[in-house]
Amino acid sequence: MTVPAPRARRRSSTLGRLLPLLLIGALLAPVGLLLTTTWRQTTDDRDLAARERLGVQYLTALATVTDALVEAQSAAVNGRPVAREALNQAVEKVAAVDARIGVELLSQERWAGVRAKLEALRAPGTADPESAYTAYSEATDLLLALHDKVRESSGLVRDSEADSFYLQDSAGQELPEAVVAASRLADLGTLISRRPAAEQPRGLMELTGLRVAALTPATDLVDNLRSAVDGSESTDLGANVLTPLDTYQRSVEALAAYSAPANGTGVLDPGQLSAAALNTHRAARQLQPVILAELDALLVERIDNLDRDRWLTAGAGVLAGLLLSWLAALLITAARRARRRAAMAATHAETPDTPSQGDPWQPAAPDPRALQPIGAARDPETAQWGAFDAAR
């Protein structure tokens, strides 16, 4: 009788063992890439906002130097004693700020040049009004260049939000330029009135150029701030900025009126022009800290929102990791159960079948022994006594 060969045990497929891990990897790769990209982008935006706040701090310190410098220039041109104490304090304030964040803002070299120029203004050679006007103009030019450098290196000039961009442009460029140009305009009007009559026409042409240089940034400043208020979601920006802005705008209108030649005769009143420039300077002094404070508040709010987004991204990453771990555990457990069941089925198939007991209701099977010849003893004992029985 032929015995069937045992079936070979089925080996679990390598692909089947790796399938759960492949599925987890397929889910983990895009989720991890998305979360990593979001985290990096949010971190970069937060770092930029924090760097812009450093620029606001530097611009706040530079505002004090600008105010003190234009006042010292007006005093030197008009023959009044120069208040060195206010200018020295402003310089020390900027020096402290530059020592703290100047390396990061790449402003130390520029500030060193400005400070050297301001130190040179203390020399006795600036007593002449014309020389003082030239020396102070050179110093203010360097100071305005430092404003631009701080805006560039801090990233303020590349701000992506409309309201904060208009605010930084107003506080870091338009307002300092307008203040410096208005002061020069008034001082030049004073100098022209003292020059000989033959030189006054040339001075009036120079004065006309300064008038444009003073009114253009002032007008741009008003437009920028109104655009910032209109495009901002902050409810405090308009309430805080519009009132000092209106005061500044009225002072600029007065400056424009008093800086124009009366009735086309080319005659200016230096006293009225100086008073108008002084009012403009005072209005700008009230407006600039408001602009810088609102700009800093917007940056702080942006940093808070970005911190919240980073926490949400981190939380989403942790949750995704937990869900994928749970899914991996389920898939691995299911794969192990499937392999265990397959192994049990293979073991059961390899076990030999046990003979089954006969049915009691069926007739007995015939004796499998071979047939004997007629007369032959069927039993050895019977065959032994057969001859004896025959003799009897």
Note down, in words, how this protein is organized:
By secondary structure, the chain is mostly helical. The chain has one domain (25-318). The chain contains ten helices and no strands. Helix 1 runs parallel beside helix 5 (162-194) and helix 6 (200-231) packs antiparallel against helix 7. The radius of gyration is 49 Å and the shape is elongated. The two termini are 49 Å apart.
Q: What percent of residues adopt helix (DSSP H or I)?
A: over 70%
Rg to the nearest angstrom? 49 Å
Report the structural category. Answer: mainly alpha
- What's the rounded overall pLDDT mean? 82
Largest sheet: none
* Silhouette: elongated
Instruction: List low-pLDDT spans.
Output: 8-12
The portion of residues forming beta strands comes to under 5%
Number of strands: 0
Number of helices: 10
Amino- and carboxy-terminal Cα gap = 49 Å
Number of domains: 1
Order of helices and strands: HHHHHHHHHH
Compact summary:
The protein is mainly α and 392 residues long.
Which keywords apply here?
392 residues; mainly alpha; 78% helix; 0% strand
Summarize the helices and strands and which ones pair or pack:
Blueprint lengths: L13 H64 L6 H22 L2 H13 L8 H26 L7 H33 L5 H32 L3 H25 L10 H81 L29 H5 L1 H6 L1
Helix pairs in contact: 1-2, 1-4, 1-5, 1-8, 3-4, 4-5, 5-6, 5-8, 6-7, 7-8
